[in-house]
Amino acid sequence: MKIFLDTANLNQIKKAIEWGICDGVTTNPTLVSKEALPFEELIPEICRIVPGPVSVEAVSTQAEEIIQESRGLARLSENVVIKIPITEEGIKAIRVLAQEGIKVNTTLVFSPLQALVAAKAGARFVSPFIGRLDDICHEGMILVEQIMAIFNNYGFDCEVIVASIRHPLHLVEASLIGADIATVPFPVLEKALKHPLTDVGLERFLQDWAKVKHK
Ligand code: E4P
Q: Is 163 near ligand 1, meaning CB less than 6 Å away?
């Protein structure tokens, strides 16, 4: 499973790259709004350091404007993937952009049919938001399973990004069902490294090492 970082924070991205577990990055308007750098400087800098796709969201709502905005964003770097919400206007834009070779990550996906339509239109990625479904008492991971089954049935060349991940268990579940990609907030990635028994075990080994006799 590829791991993307769900953040626009350069420090978090640099750390994950140092750990060797950052295959890409997803941003959205909320994440970008938390950063001090202007958008026009932030995105190229993220693209410069990330060794993979960087999703950047188009905020226009009409097809022609989404297309124009996406072309501009795509020019920022060859890593850029355009995030487009799944709407009627979004779908029209996805088709045009896909024909131009611009990669699209269809976002705010909450149903298997939204994913099917996006893939048929030519989206390169779809992002089911599982945490937001869990929040309203729908099991988000079932949506991921359904989308994967549909894509497998028809051989769509569209990768599933498990998004809106809230905790390490989501990451475990995503990898057990064989999701292509999970996009993970940095605190969840940190938690994924940790186990209390590892800390206790390491402390004991270090204490015992101090007692070892040397020549
Ligand atoms: C995905 O691409 C989104 O940026 C993100 O996962 C949304 O997560 P949230 O529901 O925690 O805002």
A: yes
**What is the chain's length?**
215
Kindly report, residue by residue over 24-75, the tens digit of the pLDDT: 999 999 999 999 999 999 999 999 999 999 999 999 999 999 999 999 999 9
Please report the domains of the chain, with CATH numbers, ordered by start residue. Answer: 2-209 (3.20.20.70)
For residue 83, indicate whether it is catalytic. Answer: yes
3-state class (DSSP) for residue 32: helix
End-to-end CA distance of the chain: 47
Q: Are 52 and 24 in contact (CB under 8 A)?
A: yes
The answer for residues whose C-beta is within 8 angstroms of residue 182's C-beta and 6 or more apart is 1, 2, 3, 4, 161, 162, 165, 170, 171, 174, 175
Of the candidates 54, 18, 6, the one whose C-alpha atom is nearest the C-alpha of residue 193 is 18
**Residue with the two structure tokens 């209390």:** 196
User: What torsion do the CA atoms of 108, 159, 184, 2 make, to the nearest 10 degrees?
Assistant: -170
- Is 106 near ligand 1, meaning CB less than 6 Å away? no
Report how far residue 140's alpha carbon sits from residue 155's, in angstroms, rounded to the nearest whole number: 23
